[in-house]
Specification:
9 strands, 2 domains, globular, 9 helices, homotrimer, Rossmann fold, alpha/beta
């Protein structure tokens, strides 16, 4: 069975069979990371280019780890060492990389749509590892795998996404993927962080997190991207933490078996209190583990890996 | 058959047999990059140190790709993470790296002659990946391979090199290599960009590109290195583009089957118009592809690779 | 035989059997770096994370080389591309990396005790590659291997350590390791560079290097860390070089077969004159070679490598 798409540019391009195939493949590959020898020769002789035009820790490391567990070679390529500083266009840079015959390109960029632009310029598959305020499909897929692992089902669940909905590609990809898979999604956050066009999505909107927490099976907290906030969208971090952060007080009406997720990096004491981040409800580190598995699955499926 | 030289410091050190052996080996290895499994075990267990003391995209990536396709390990080493910042001399840094028993050193440096200095300090082979205004031998070799691929011959061709001849190591290495191989070379550019000692080379010199274009089988455009120009050598980029750039107007008397080359990164609209860079005459991306092949050949020949 | 410790956080955690096992294993593995194919499959499928939160050349390269010679995969992770810049705590960063199931963490950090903190947060072994002013255990082990190689014994030797004793983790680890192994250690340097608590160690203290040089079998020079000196601890580099640097004059009463060591990077003309650094007494480059062997041994022993 194959994916219906040559690239992973966004959740929008995936149909339900694709999503199920990705999750199933990830489940199968996950076991490799628990072996003493964490490596299979599935992608031996394949070269994966990691083009991170925005700084990244976990996502780059996760893709690199995934590639190496499948025996692929990786080549890191960042904005700072790029010919773009010498006046070359991004398209020319990528056409040049393509001319070296890589097997797959992973791209993160601060501008929305760049992975789509590049996908049209190269022959090999492109995976979007986050583009501007647009999409972060591998994050949504690993979140879905995490939910399925714990809740043993997806359809019919109630997921609350809390925080800066307007400026989060994680929120956007999750809303699209979860609603596609039959999840009831509610979003909550300050009005200044709610996208103007939120009513175009099939989600419930709240401006008080106490409205969404009691019925949520899963709560996804978004990171306050302090380094990206160009304008002040709330009076203070302290006030944000009090009204929109997850803590003992705001959690008091939550379900007993509620699952807490966060894409990381966590601002402890801002969007989530340390005692919640470290509580048994939190699956933040499972998300990271599943991230490697989902990326292995995508590399495997897109590069036409041999029998595992 | 072996190279007559232990290092590749410049085109000057290569005799005609060396050049032919390199091109032949590159042709043989090129096919590997087209396989589904792009890897042969020829250099398994060899370690290639990539020491780029100047920023670089394509050249570093090209060497890294070449090394990995031959199963060599690579270790990146850049100026910024170097002990040189702690007051160590460059020679000591390289002697230290040598003490870790690498099999080959690839060096790029902003000062002319640094690869030669280092070659005297280490036991392993050194490849010059560009030194100051001096030489860039692997670029000249990949250019030659590209010309041979398309024109099916080298000797007797007419090659025009256009641009900042004085400040281009690419021009210098190409002039030396092409004249050595029996090519008629002409150079053209503004008088301010022509080296004072240009008459020491066996080339025709012109200050108007219309003199060299009509008879050229191959036109090599040089990059205007905007980031290196410390003084203004021409009134404006616009004027440069008009009189020395390749565009429909300046190309109108060119041969029907003229081949256009550029070492990259391209300043579109400065030394070359987009419609020329993307035209069927352009082999810019073939140059990139051939770069990997030529570097594979050099690593293979210098590291004493096993049967492929 | 196994190490008595799960981590290598400092020399203090190693007993004499551990040290002997490490040296013996390093001796065995050293031969691999001299083979034409410098690679054994001992750690195939293992992933080593190299987390250097302080800039480093030789130590990072040495660990990376060591890992690759044992066929382990490496993943570089530096402070600059870290999520720490996005407000994440160091502990969260490392917990995240741990969730990707690496097999070993190598950590360098400017603050003392960070490797210990991280070792408590992760399941896999941690090697301290230098923490603040505290310890640099792999340097002390490679120094010991170098001494043993040349002097054919350790116990009963007389080793003088000269320089900024107070601010050197190299000095601290060496004092601890050498005294543990039965070496008579003397330290010498300006009073401003002698730790207040130096009398807690079993060492002879001198403020004039002429007191320690004549009886020394081995002289270890410390680097003047010009980039770290926040306050002026001596009048000038010139004066330091004259009174505390190793040169023909200060060396004149040294033993005929004295061995000169330096952890690098060397400030030529400051703590050591070029003619001494390059003399037959100097084993500075042997230290570098042995560094790869010692790190191979530690990776091998901590990752439970298969038969070599």
């Amino acid at each position: 069975m194959n994916l219906s798409t040559h690239h992973i540019l966004g959740v929008e391009d995936l149909n339900n069979q694709d999503v199920e195939l990705i999750l199933k493949t990830a489940e199968n590959l996950k076991e490799i990371s628990l072996r003493p020898v964490k490596k299979v020769p599935a992608l031996r002789g394949k070269t994966i280019l990691l083009c991170f035009f925005e700084p990244s820790t976990r996502t780059r490391a996760s893709f690199e780890m995934a590639a190496k567990r499948l025996s692929a070679d990786t080549l890191n390529f960042s904005a700072s060492d790029s010919a773009i500083n010498k006046g070359e266009s991004l398209l020319d840079t990528v056409r040049n990389l393509q001319a070296m015959d890589p097997d797959l390109l992973v791209v993160r960029h601060g501008f929305s749509g760049i992975p789509h632009l590049l996908a049209r310029a190269v022959r090999c598959p492109v995976i979007n590892a986050g583009d501007g305020l647009h999409e972060h499909p591998t994050q949504a897929l690993l979140d879905l795998l995490t939910i399925q692992n714990i809740k043993k089902k997806i359809k019919g669940l109630n997921v609350a996404i809390i925080g800066d909905i307007a400026h989060s590609r994680v929120a956007r990809s999750n809303i699209l993927l979860l609603t596609k898979m039959g999840v009831k999604v509610s979003v909550a956050g300050p009005a200044s962080m709610m996208p103007a066009a939120i009513d175009q999505y099939d989600v419930e909107v709240a401006y008080d997190i106490r409205e969404v927490i009691p019925k949520a099976d899963v709560i996804m907290m978004l990171r306050i991207q302090r380094e990206r906030q160009d304008a002040c969208r709330f009076p203070s971090l302290r006030e944000y933490a009090r009204f929109f952060g997850l803590n003992k007080q705001t959690m008091k009406d939550a379900k007993k078996d509620v699952v807490i997720m966060h894409p990381g990096p966590v601002n402890r004491g801002v969007e989530i209190a340390p005692e919640i981040a470290d509580s048994p409800h939190s699956v933040i580190l499972d998300q990271v583990t599943n991230g490697v598995a989902v990326r292995m699955a995508l590399l495997y499926l897109l590069c036409g890996g041999k029998e595992i």
